[in-house]
Amino acid sequence: MMQDNAVFSVIDAKKNKLKRNIINELYRSGPRTLSQLATILHTSIPSVTALVEELNIGQWTHGVGTGAAQFGRKPSLFALDPSRYVTVVADINRHDVKLIIFNLANQVIYRLDVDLHLDDSETFLSILREPLEQIVREAEVRNLHVIGVGVALPGLIDPARGLNYTYPHLNRPNHSLTDLLQELFNAPTYLLNDTKATILGEHRFGLAKGKNHVLSINIDWGIGLAAILNGELLQGASGFAGELGHIQIQESGQLCYCGKVGCLDTMASAYALIQRVKAGLLEGRVSKLAEEDFEKIDVEMVIDQANAGDAFAIDMLTEIGSELGRGLSIAVHLFNPERIIINGVLAKADKLIRRPIEQAIDKYCLADYRNNLSIEISQLGEMAKLAGAHAFVMQSLLDQEQIP
C-alpha cells in the first residue's frame, strides 16, 4: 500500500511539474497550441491535452480561438485565464504607495494610490494596513484568488530572506511588512528592490526585451542601478548588487544620508538637482524658477522650465546628467552593456538628461565600450516597476512550486 502511495506521489509530482511548465510557457510567450506545448515540454499531445483540460477546469487556462494552419483544421489556442487568479503588487516609495491587482494576462484590473510616504517605523505599517484591507475587500467582491504578493521597495533588500536593511523597522518579528501582507492575503509574499523590479519589467515588457546585457538607471530621490547579465537579473550574494548611488565620486564632497561623503546620490539624484537649483537661485541666477514659491520648487517645475527654454534649468539638468554619466561610465566598464535604460522621475526630462549622460560616457569610457551601446529613455515609465514586481512574483511562485 505504501509503495502504491509512493508511485501515485511521483506521478502527481510529475503532472504538477508539467502543469507549472505549461503555465510558465503561456505566461512568458502567450497563447500556444497543444502541439506547440507538447514540443516545448517534450511530451505527447494526448498528455498535454489532458493537462490543459485539468488547467481549464481549475481556471488557470482557457481557449482563445484558433491558430494558423497550412492544411486542414486550424488548431485551438490556449492562454492563461485572466478571470480568477491574481497577484497584488505594492510599490512603496518615498513619495507614495501604489497598490495594484494584476491578472494572469499582465493587466492592471484595480489600482489604489495612497498618499503615504515610506517611513522606517511601525506607524507606517499601521497606516498601511487600512488601504491593504481595501485591496483584500476588492479581491473578495470580484471573487478573485490572490496567489502571491510582490513589494517593490528602495534600499538594500535581501529577497531570499525578505529583509530590508535600509529600513530595519519594517522587519521586526511578529510585526513586519511581510507578516502583515501574508496575514491579510494568505499568500506568499516577496520583497524586491525597486530598481531591480524596474529592470525586470523592462526585460519582460520594455526596451530590454530580447536583450542579454542591459543596465537600468533609476534616477529618483536616490540613484539605483540594476543589471541584466547573460539574460538574468544580477542579485549579488545578498541581493545588494547595483548600489551605484553610493559609489564615491567626490572625495571632499557632501555628506550622504548613508554616512559616507561624496556619493553619487549627493551629486546627481533628483534631491541633488533641487538643492543645486535652490542654491543657484539664492546666488542670483536668472531664471523663471525665481518666480515660483521657493519652498515648493520640484523636479517637474525644473523640467517644465527647461523644456520651455529656461537656460538656468537646462544648465542644472546638464550638470546632473554629466555627473550621472561619469558614474555610469564605471558600470559600463564593469558590465559592458548593450543598452542603458533611464527610468525614474528625471527620465521625464528626456533628451535634456539623456544627452549629457551620453556625452559623459563618451568622455569617460573607452571608445570600444561605447561603439555598441545605446542609451534610451524608458517607454514604460512607472509601469516598468509595477509589471516587473508582478513578473517577479509569478516567477518566484513557479520556481518554488507554489502553483498550481
Question: How would you describe this structure to a colleague?
Answer:
The chain is of the alpha/beta class. The chain is 44% helix and 19% strand. It contains 13 helices and 15 strands. The protein has helices at residues 2-29, 34-41, 45-57, 122-141, 177-185, 194-205, 265-268, 270-282, 299-307, 311-335, 351-364, 367-370, 383-399, and strands at 32-33, 61-66, 76-80, 85-92, 97-103, 108-114, 145-153, 157-158, 163-164, 189-193, 213-219, 223-229, 232-233, 339-343, 374-377. It has a five-stranded mixed beta sheet with strand order 6-5-4-7-10, with helices on both faces. α1 (2-29) crosses α3 (45-57). The longest helix has 28 residues, at 2-29. It is globular, with a radius of gyration of 24 Å. The relative contact order is 0.11.
